[in-house]
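Crash report, auto-generated. Payload:
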Amino acid sequence: MEASRSAQYYIARQRVYRLILYLLLFAGCAIMLLPFIWMLTTSLKSSVAVLQMPPQWIPRDWAWSNYPRAWSVAPFGRYFFNSFFISITTTIGEVITTILAAYAFAKMRFFGKNLLFAGLLATLMIPGEMLLIPNYVTIVNLGWLDRYQALIIPWIVSVFGIFLLRQFFRSIPDELWDSARIDGCRRLRFLWQIVVPLSKPAILTVALFKFLGSWNAYQWVLIMTNTEGMRTVPVGLQLFSSEVGTAYELLMAASVLAIIPVLLLFFFAQKQFIQGIARTGIK
Amino acid sequence: MRLHRMFLVGLIGALLIGATALAQEPVTITFWHAMSSGHQPNLQKLADDFMAEYPYITVELVYQGGYGDLQQKINAAVVGKNLPTIAQVYENWVTPIAEILYPIGPHMTDEEKADIIDGLVESNTYNDVLTTLPFNKSIMVFYYRTDLVPTPPSTWEEYLAMARDLTVDEDGDGRIDRYGTGFRPAANPEQFLTLLEQAGGSILNEDWSEVTIDNDAGLAAMQFAADLTPYSFVTGEYMSDHFPYKVCMFIDTSAGYYYNNRAAQNKGVEMGVARVPAGPANQKSMIQGTNVAVFDTDYITQAQKEAGTLLARFLIRAENTVFWAIKGGYQPVTKSAYETDEWIEFVAGHDYQIAMSEQMLDGFSQILHPYYGDMRSIIATGYEEVMMGVSTPRQALDEIAAEIEPLLED
Amino acid sequence: MNARRRWWIRDEWRNPAYWRESGAAYLYLLPSLVILGIFVFYPFFSAFRLSLYRWDLLRPPGAYIGLGNYEYIFGHRYFWRALWHTFYYVGINVPVTLFLAILVASLLNKGLRFLSFARTSYFLAYVSPLVAVTMVWRWMYNADYGLLNYFISVVNRLPFVNINIVEWLRDPAYAIPAVIIMSVWRYVGYQAIILLAGMQSIEQQYYDAAKVDGASGFQVWRKITIPLLTPQLFFVFIISLIGSFKVFTEIHVLFGGTSGPLKSAETLVYYILRIGRLETQHLGRAAAASVVLFGIIFAFTLFQLIVTQRRVHYQ
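Recovered output after restart:
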């Protein structure tokens, strides 16, 4: 009798506990989604309704035409192509260079390791603005101005990514390498065939953030290009703002379109996360 | 026989002229601008008309983002030796590089030069030569809601009195619910510079050797701002975000008409536009906006420079500046433009332009001092402190003067 | 016999295998180092160099003035204000965001339903265009119609509670808190995702062992998840620290192109950009302030690296 009552209390307590967790989760989600919802509803408002205060959460007049109107403002087809091309190539390039570099910092012993790592971190500590003009001159001197090289090559390295992966790689036990080495495995093979599959969540995270960064890059693209045909989506989005005000309804429509690829990528990456890692067979 | 000879001379002459026209080498020029999507079709039309008139010239319009981005691009291009032929510029961007500007004035007739609005001549003149030309300009005017402000104030005294009467705390909770007027001191110090001009003051004296902003005229202007402070909604945001329910009347740029009017319409209120209230010395207000400048470097050819000057002169032709103004919400930049049929017709159909036109013809611009940017920043800081109630006019002006002093020594 | 060994020469340097491994390591690092060298290190030193000159756009870098720029900024009261604002912002933003991110990641790590919906929501907060984010927050901060003041007025209906309505965005005292709140909101999702990836990498065997030992959920969280998460915690902390020191865009858009009423939200990077690009173009002075900023961040990071060396557990 005693046992079942305390068991009942336990189950009840667990239920309440879970309920609270769900409430917290939903409250958190609701507040996180507000700007996204505003973005969606504003993209369907007429230009008059956009700046109402207090804001309209449900558009009274559904201006579906905002989407084609926004699209026609600039060659967005070309912009999307460029954005995809640049984001994909930089992400692939960055994943490769980052895996190599992070592994070196995480698992290899070499001369000047700590100093070099500190130096890499140091590069994150200066505001990017200060680097813009010297980089512009470099790009001009290399003859890369207004060409894809300028938009891709400088960005296939990311200190942020190297740092992130290094932390993950360091968590992988050294015994793994020791036993692999005994079996005659070469380092590079070990890296690609064992370490990488074990670090999928981390690598996906790095790739996701890199794609996002490249996708949203504005200032660099603007400064390093002059022709329409080379520009990307963020530059197109700037067209909706003038010095006295912004056409929010069009900007939000274009922004909704711009965010879709990122969301799709996120969903894909999430699935890989969830599958998790089966770490059997370590020994 | 004589007729024959005349005919022959005429024929040869025509052939020569035709030959020269055909022999004109085709030239391509680049025009960097910051015009957003709404303005771009209009700019393109102007470019197309220009190219139709000068078939050997090709104009490439290049969008370079917002004004901040355009400035950064131009600066980078100076260092990277990559400047375009012609660009839209603010005065401060080119004052430090005046040496590499190609003066447009010497290519203009005296009539063309005299036609430019008086208040715009000085701010386009470097070393006594008209170098750049005004492009998209707007003027500070007075916006008000007609239901609470049936007649707009015409003097400072009236402005102060009306602002006081309109400031109310309706529900008695200690918080003011509606202010008579509003200001954006940090973002728009031009509002104060307008007051300064209206009081007969100036930042520096004629030959830029002394700071005069802290003299009696300057004090009168700053004091007026301080007097208005209790009845002013002070913010960094656009006034259209708070008009008409929080603010009843305010000084703002003519280019903001569309947004201000829309804000009024959203609340079912009518908006009026009038000249700014007159100060002790005059009723002028400040002109804001960009000019066009042609660059003079060794990688820009003479032909390109000349084509650039042709484009600049084309843009300020009466019919073109009127077109640009009507389509873009700007003000025409030449006196004769205001007398064209198109403009008169436009004003008749849009009566808010009456006040704007009058105000523009009586406008003034910034000085071209190399440290104007610093001065503007210093003045904005002091002005904001007064309007936020943390500084008195005297204190603020003394500090402003003290900070501007050292800038004159260089 | 050992007393005269040269102590500054490490043992490992005597081993030729060490140098072979070094060679291999540099090969692995080659692409990264080359690109970073050209596009980051070189302009980085350029900026340092710039701080010793009086910037001249036509004849860069201009006249050499030694420490003149440093003298200027150290004598400029707005520099010191910016420094204070920065420390205020970092001091609150970093720990609060991290703490909340750990909670959120833990929540997301549990096998609750609607997990992917939740994860997407947090991610969306980070990914939504800044324009949309700021519009919503400007509404929330609106003194008359905004959500925050609405909550305050609701809370004020309780007896004995009388909180003043805050003129968000117009009151200098609340400028930085306003930025912090918006910032925390935006970056919690970003940090939570990284921590989540870390949590997912913790080997099941640890959890299994804990269950066998009869540990409660909370104990598992405290003794296993968090300690094994320290590599990622460390990473997120450092990145958050560095990023917070460099905050600019959020302030610029929240306050309509100004740095807050009476420049009350002007952080060091805002100051740098204001004098170097937005209001004037004193690039030499901006570079000097950047060098100072760099020094501060570097000192902080180094301190963190040393202090947490022992507490970071790699498996």
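Post-recovery validation: The two ends of chain C are 39 Å apart (CA to CA).
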